[in-house]
Amino acid sequence: MPADSSVTAVADAFQKLTTSDQIPKVTKYGLWASWAALVLLAACLIVVSFLVIDSERRAEEIRLQQSTDLVVQSLESRILGTAELLQKTSMRLMQVQNGRFPMASAELSATTLMEERSEVTSIALVTKENEVIRSWTSSVSPTIERRQVGALLTEKELTAAVARVFITDTSEITPLYTLKDTQLVYADLIVPTPSSQQVLVARVDLSRLLTSAVRFSSNDRYRFVFLENGDYVLEGDREQSTDAESAVRYEAPLTLLGRRSDVKTTILGTSFDHALSATNKVPVFLVAGLSVMLALTLAWLFYYQRQQHRSHRLLAAEYSLRRAMSESAVVGLRVTDREGRIIYVNETFQKILGCEASDLLGQRPPYTYWLEDIHERLDEILKAGNPTPEPVTFLARRKSGEVFHAEVRLSPLEDENGRSLGYIGALYDVTAQALAREEVLAANDRFTRVVQSLNSSLAVLSDSDELYFANRGYERLFGRSSEGAVRLLESLRTLPEAEHREGLYDEATERWFDVRVRPLVWTKGENARLMIATDITARRELEIAREQQLRRAEATQRLVTMGEMASSLAHELNQPLAAISNYAGGAYTMLENGTLSSERCRTAFERIENQAVRAGKIIQRIRGFAKKTDAKLEPVLVSKVIQETMELANIQARKLNARLEIDLEENLPTLRGDEVMLEQLLLNLLKNAMEAVFESDNHTIRVRVARLEAHQNMVRFEVIDHGPGISDEEKARLFDAFYSTKSEGMGMGLNICRSIAELHGGRLGITDTPGGGATFSFTVPVWTGEA
Ligand code: ADP
Asked: Which parts pass through the membrane (predicted)?
């Protein structure tokens, strides 16, 4: 199997997920190594350049040394030569006797010598007493300070040297010196002559000698100067030397005439240019070029090393993240090879199953924790080749034996070339979800049962009137179509509220319904309407029957009231009728007497007419009151109710000797009610009150009408009497049918009064009048513009 080694590598990698991470350390060391290499290279370069410069310096030193030695040698040999030449010539230059010279050509000899030896600037013949007895000056390089004949030599060094020459009879040379205003170095050469009384003192221009010696060595890169006891002989040399401290120098001892003196004379050779500029530049450039290239390469290497370190760090961060994810508490991960052999499990996986990795590694399917074999299901899903495979839910068993609901998602594990290495399985403990799902299903089941068992018809309609759902109650009445629901909703929408307040009548089913509707979002987010239609036919029919009963009772009661008031009414009618009779009788008598003027006649007719109108009105009122009408809730004026009730009540009051007082609040609103019914209600209460106060001391009855304080949309009517009042016992029985304390009473009045008040949406109440008596009150709603 070709992928076998890769699989092992993967297994290894997964196993190492638990060991500490080494990658960033390795690259960090690499980075340090690069730094070290960079620093070492720089150090090497410095050392190499130092060595190159140093060796070049050494070579230059050697060259300078050779040149200096050459210069010294040529100087020394030249001086030696000059001394010898002087010595040879001395014979011709000395004074023999009495100021005479052995040869007349002394002058010539001296000139010839100085021409030959241009460094000799002057020659003087000096006696033992240091007196200059003769002197010659060079025409080639004339001396500035000429030694005058007859002058005495004063220079200490020179006189000492002259003295020594007289003793030793060998040539001497003085220490170097300079002359004022010259930048030249001189020395005096003292040469013995054949005469023991005279020596020759020749001033030698050593600067000139040095220049010609340097020219001879043909090396103009070097500068040579004289030093004496380590100090510059010429001031100018000192000044020049300070600016070339680092220059290559070499100091060679100058032993003139082979003799050492106290004063140590040396020649200092200095290389003008820096040593490097004088060397062969090709190797230097080669080394420099190579070094630069090496540095660049190293810097490049260093850059990539850093990049690598950075990417390794990122990789490590991602790797730890992945590791954290793999070890996270939620998902159990297992890796299998292509045969399904477990090669890695993470900690969560072990935690879920409650076992060790060693229990699982190496297992092949069916695994021990499977309670059911899901091999085929997994195979099928993998064969489908879906990039996000479906999860497989199954029952699993922990090591402890506990059974739980598990879910596994498999995804293929491939190497970088896309070759299959195996599979990664993510295992979840979905017990909670499974239980929750079961719970939801059970709840759903319960809910469906409840909904189905409802007597009400329940239907869910889409916006386009499609029936999404209907319960059994609905289907029983309207079938499986949305028609019934649509019909009910339509009547609910189109009928004015007053007409369906008590319920909707559905003609097709001949039933009454209480219909409620509310918007709903259906399962996939569609807008829908839920309609609940409760069949209220039975209740409604009962209500209608009761209403009809009430109507009949109330009509009867009105007639009864009229009956009760019959004698008063008759008396009331009797008065206008008696007056009419009186006026008619009077008129007739006058007519008989002939005293009926047309004026009186008109007055009599007018009075008769007035009384007839009065009687007519009373009859009209009685008729109006007794007439049976259907209850209608309309706008009613309080003033009208009061006025018309009072017309009848006053008739009775006169009979019963009661005093009626009216107390109306200002600006009372229009009421919503049935005028005749309200009058009947008020008249009943007034009649009861008048009967109650008949035997009392206080015959006053107050009718007070005002808005309710707490409920501004209600008006309260109060009938306040000061009669005997009603005991609590009586109050409890007051509304019992046929309860009456009166001999001729029917005991239905208050019952009907309460029904009328409730029909109007108000209440009938009884309280005790402060100071004795009873107060009956009822409330009526204010007209709000709606029937
Ligand atoms: P009826 O007037 O025919 O007796 P009602 O139902 O009108 O029947 O009255 C029932 C009883 O309530 C009366 O018999 C009376 O005893 C009592 N009652 C009614 N109004 C008053 C009142 N204002 N004061 C005292 N008792 C009253």
From this structure: 32-53, 284-303
Give domain 536-630's CATH number out of 1.25.40, 1.20.272, 3.30.110, 1.10.287: 1.10.287
328-436 folds as Beta-Lactamase (3.30.450)
Whether this prediction's pTM lies above 0.70 is answered by no
Contact predicate 708/716, CB 8 Å: yes
Six-digit token pair at 255? 């032993």
Distance CA 270, CA 224 (A): 6
Q: Which of 690, 693, 740, 746 to mutate to test the pocket of ligand 1 (most atoms within 8 A of CB)?
A: 740
- Cα separation, 631 vs 547, whole angstroms: 10
Q: What is the pLDDT of residues 556-578, one digit of tens each?
A: 888 888 777 777 778 778 888 98
Same fold, 57-273 and 631-787: no
Domain ranges across the chain = 57-273, 328-436, 454-535, 536-630, 631-787
Nearest CA to ligand 1 atom 14: 740
Query: How many residues in the chain?
Result: 787
Highest mean pLDDT among 228-242, 403-417, 558-572, 680-694: 680-694
Taking Cα atoms as reference points, which of 148, 154, 206, 157 lies closest to residue 182?
206
Residue type, 97: Q
Strands 185-192 and 177-178: antiparallel
Residue 23 β-bridge partners: none
- Secondary structure (3-state) at 193: coil
Residues within 6 Å of ligand 1 by CB: 688-689, 692, 721, 723-724, 726, 734, 739-742, 745-750, 774
Domain spanning 631-787: which CATH class is it, in words? Answer: alpha beta
pLDDT in tens, 62-72: 888 888 888 88
